[in-house]
Structure formats: C-alpha cells, structure tokens
Amino acid sequence: MSVITVTNSGDSGTGSLRAALAAAAPGDTIAFASGVTSISLTSPLVIDQAVTIDGDHAHNNASVTINGEVIVQLTGNVTMNDMRVVSTSAGLAATANAQAGVKGSVGTDGLPGTQTGQPGTKGGDGDPGGDATAANGAAALAGTPAIENDGKLTLINSTVTGTASGGKGAGGAGGAVGGQGGAGGTGGTGFASPSGFVNGGNGANGGTGGDGGSGSSGTDGAEAVGGIINTGDLTLEDSIVTGKATGGAGGAGGKGGAGAAGGAGGGGGFSIGIGAPKQPPVNPSAGGNGGDGGNGGSGGNGGDGGAGGSAVGGILNTGKVTVVGAAVLANDSATAGSGGKGGLGADPGTGGAGGTGGSGDPFGSNGLAGSAGNEGHTGVTGAAGTATKDILNDGGTESGKLTINGRIFDLNTDLSGQASTVNISGSKPTTFTYDAQSLSGASPKTGTVEWKILTGADGPLLKDFTGPTSGTLTFSSNATSADEAFSIELSADAAAPRDEVFTVELLDPSTGNVIGSLKSLTQHVVNLTAPACFASGTGIRTARGDIAVEDLAIGDLIVTVSGVLRPVKWLGSRNVDCAHHGRPAAVYPVRVQAGAFGLGVPTRDLFLSPDHALYTEDVLIPVKHLINGKTIAQTTADSVTYFHVELDAHDVLLAEGLACESYLDTGDRTSFAYGHSVTELHPAWGSEARDIALLTDGLSYAPLRVTGMEVELARAALAASMLAEVRPAEVRPAQARLSAA
Q: Which SUPFAM superfamilies does the UniProt record give (predicted)?
C-alpha cells in the first residue's frame, strides 16, 4: 500500500487528483502537497477504487477543499479524512417545444334559394381550434448534491457543503381559436298575382362555431439535494454536512383557445305582387321565415400546471447511514418547488343572430338566436414538491448519534415519518431515542436549552425545555399516556439546577389551553435516571459464592458473564415508597420467574427495577420490555428496597444465575445511600431516561435495545421456555423480599 501525492490543483493532468485516482491501487492513500489546498473540478469525479483520501497537511484539521459545480460520485470503498467538499449546482430549466394549436377553419356560408320560394342552404359549421401539443423538449435537470455515494464511503473529520437548485418546468402552449360558423342562406323570393302565388322561401340556419383548442400542460420542475445522496453505505465520523436545496417550480399550463361565434341565420324570402294597376286584388303571399342562428363554440380548457420539484437539504438516504463519534447536520435548508399554475379556460363563442323573416302577407317569423358555448375550464395547479430540511430517509436505515442543528438524536433502525421537529420523513415507523447527556452538558444559566422529541407507541410527544425553571410538554392528538409524558418531562429537565423547583404545564395542542400541571416536590427531582437496581435478597455471584446484594462489601470480587472477576467499586441503596409514588408502575419491581430462560436461569425468582437491563442476544434489554405477564411480570408492593452494584467498569454480572448489567453512573448516585436507608415520599425516577443514557454512553458493556430483532428473539426464547415448562424446585416467595401491600 503506497501514498500517492497530489501536486496539481487543476481538474486533470499530471499530478492532479484525477490522475492520482487513476494510478491508485486498492488500499492506497492519496495525500496532498502542502501547496495544494483546493481542487476545482469541472466534471464529476468518479471514485470506484478502495482508497483513502487524506486532506490533512498538519495532522490537525481539514486542509484541502474539493469544489465546483459538480458532484463526487462514489462506487468504491472510499475513506475521506480531513476533507472539505463544496458544491454549487443549478439544474437546467426544461425546454418546452410545445406548439400552439392551429386556428379552426371558418364555416362556408349557405347558398340563397335560387328559385322562386326556394329555401336557402344551411351555413357550414366552423372547425374546432387545434389543441396545443405537449412539451416534448428536454426535461428539467435536478440540482445535484456535493456527494453521491453508491458504494461505501466513510467521512472522518470532514465537511460537506452543497447548494443545489432544480431546474424549472416548461410552460404549456395555448390552444387555438375555433372557426366561426357560416351564415345561413337566404330564402328565395315569393310572388302574388291574379293567377296564383308562391310564398317566400325560408332562410337557412347558421353554422355552429368551432370549439377552442385546449392548452397543453406544463412540465414538472426538477428535484434538488444539497448535501449527500446515499444509496450505499455511508459512515459519518466527527463530520459536518450542510445542505441547501431548492426544488424547481412546475411550468404553467397553456391557455385554452376561444370558442368561435355561430353563423347568422338566413333571412326569409319576401313576396312581391304581380299584376296591372286596377286589376282585381292579387292572391296573398307569405314572407319566408328567418333561419336560426348557429350555436357558439365552447372555449378550450387550460392545461394543467406541472408539479414542483422536491428538495432535501442534508441527506437523501435510501441505503445505510451510520454515525460514529460526533456528526452534525448544520444550517440545512430546503424549499420545495411550487406547482405551476393551471392555464386559464377560454371564453365561449356567442350564438349567431337569427335571420329576419321576409315581408309578405303575413310577414315571416324571425329566426332564433343561437346559444353561446360553454366557458373552458381552468387547468389544475400542479402539486408543490415536498421539502425535507435535514434527512429524507426513503426506505433506508440509520444508526448512531447525530446532532441536527445542535440537537443530538440517537437514530435507531427504521427512521420515518414526518417528524416536524427535525424534518425527517419517509415511509417507515420512527423511533427517536432521547440523549440525556446532551442536555446535561448544557448550561441553563448561560443559554436556552431547546429540545424536541418524537417517541412512544402512543404517538408523537413534543418536548420544549426553555430554561432552568420551566418546561412545556405538548401532546399530539393521539398521545394518551400521561405516565409516559411525565417520564419524558423528567428526563428532558436534566439540565435544571438541583436546587430549583419548577412546574411543567400540560397543553392541549388544538387550543393551547393548560389542561394540567406537574410540580416538583423535592430538590432531587432532577435525579432522572431509572437505575439498574436489584431488590433486597437478590443473590449475586462472587468469588466466595452467591451473596445477598445487601451483604456485599466494597472490594468483593464479582463473577462476570465473561468469567473475569471485577471488584465492587460502590454500593448504593434506596427504599422506595411505592404506595405514595406519583407513578407506581415506574418503580414496582419486575419479577423474573425461576427458570424463565431455561433450566436454572434464573435459579430463583429475581426482582429487578423496571429499567434494569438483562444481557441476552449479545445486547442489553431493559426487563420491562420483556414482560409477558407470565414468566416475567410486574408485581405490586407498598415499598421496596433497591440496591446498586457498581464495578470498576460497566459489565454483566450474574444475579440468581441470570446475566444482568451492573450499575453505570448516569448522574443519580446522590439519590442512593451507602450504609443506611434513604426514603423519599415521591422519588422522581423510574423512566426510560436510563435506557437513553446507556445508549449514548461509550462505556456501556453492550448496545442497548428496546425494539428490534434482538428483543423479538429474546421474547421468543421466553415463550419457548414457557412451553417446555421447565422449573426448578426451589422458588423463593415474593413476600420474602418485598413489603407486600
């Protein structure tokens, strides 16, 4: 494996980055000479090798920037270390090439009656105006991101900045005007004489006006992604992604063509007298009736507007994203393209005038005027695109701890659906995990802490914490669990000073009215973690055999699941008054029945706090997530004494023969005492916060899971053990360790 040094900051040529990539073998590292700080690309940089690109000159920060109106396309196994990738991209607008419709031909006029009393012929109908043709030019081009990864990309201490805008859609063309209807022919002349008469001929009807042509639809605007499109495997380690994206607007629909007027009706033939003066009166002769006017043509419909392009600011992910260390999506923005306006419908044609009746005895009747046509319909406005500021997870998966604009989230597998708090959207269920450490590290005395979270099976629950003495919980319309809300309230106030008393108001989201409040009762309300606790009497495996947890001493050697002996570093105890607790279900012990996991596992009934994690399937699972109502069930008690066992490192010990986690310090040590009992009327702990702290603590023995494949496998193992009905003879009654109600 060799190091290839880039000495040319140009797009290509000897010593360029492109040349270095062409010469690199799998496993090589590409470095940059000290004078090369910027690479300006004029075309996409395709990387299909397994290489490392290291842009750190002084081994302390990113020194090299790749920039241009291009994207870096990756299909290989690539590591970028200490690099900056900066891109600005504007997609080209669509070209229309839509043709307007051709005007309809005018109808021919009808012929007059050529003989005495003969009717005229009908006027010809006007032809409809032609429809506009659909746009057949080039489609709008997408705004491209800084990086497009279809391979395996690891970004370490790197920055990706992308600004992209999608091209606008093309407008539709207009429809043509319809042809006017032809006029009806006039009737032939009549006569009256002593020897006879002929009435005047009837005028003919006018022709119908042609309908206007329809306008064509506008084309769609193009999408834009600012930061990264990931269809492969992306790892972000101590890196920053900033993306700004604007979707292209849809093209407007073309206007419809106007309808044409109907032709006028032909006039009736008139009658004339024939004979010498003073002759006997001539026979009377009637005038011909006038023809009806032709109907006007309908106006053409306007074309529909094109859809606006969607926009994703940070990451469009259909693959896998893993976050290691600190990674940030910062200052992302996304603006969806607006839909094109529908084309206007055209005015209708007027009806032709009726023909005038001919003179005679009697006069002929006038013809009826033609009816006006219908007005054309306005086209439908195109749908606006969608905007996702930070991450659009379209069927992909994400894991790790990610900071979005300064707020840290633990992203479990199956991210999803429309979380307005962080602008994450997609098609799968979402699990957000609260990170207690991110808030506890903030100083409420020097700045405002703002936190929002989506959690729980009861629906979205938004949490805003805006200072050291107050907080607000806002329920969604389908959130029903007040208990869950209270636990989130506690965990989210981790930054509050320990000597503050504060009130939390519960709001109705539809009205904003206060529907309840919770007030802290002790100065220790901010001791938020639900610790890993053993009920008194639990046998802990030591080098000297099983010893009741209350009889352990500092320095005792504890047998861990790996067989390594670890010394006891600290012991804590606490008596919990369950009968007067505001949320007793959060602190009632969970009983793991003897043999629940198989013969002798555990050897006796084991009582744990609800959040105490068991080690199974190579992960830690809080026992409350394994409750099945039979072999693992929550019990009730007036009070219970819980014990902490902290080793010199977080590990898994054997309690009644079952693998359980040891204590991990998450800030609640002062809520427990060593050597004497501590009792609080309303202890303010017992929540999911313990789970979260462990998720984000790098010192934990194993990953913690509350959902997913490992949890389902553990539940399946419990069900199999129940079917086998394997139980040892020795079972200690629950009352031996609990103060029963």
A: CalX-like (SSF141072), Hedgehog/intein (Hint) domain (SSF51294)
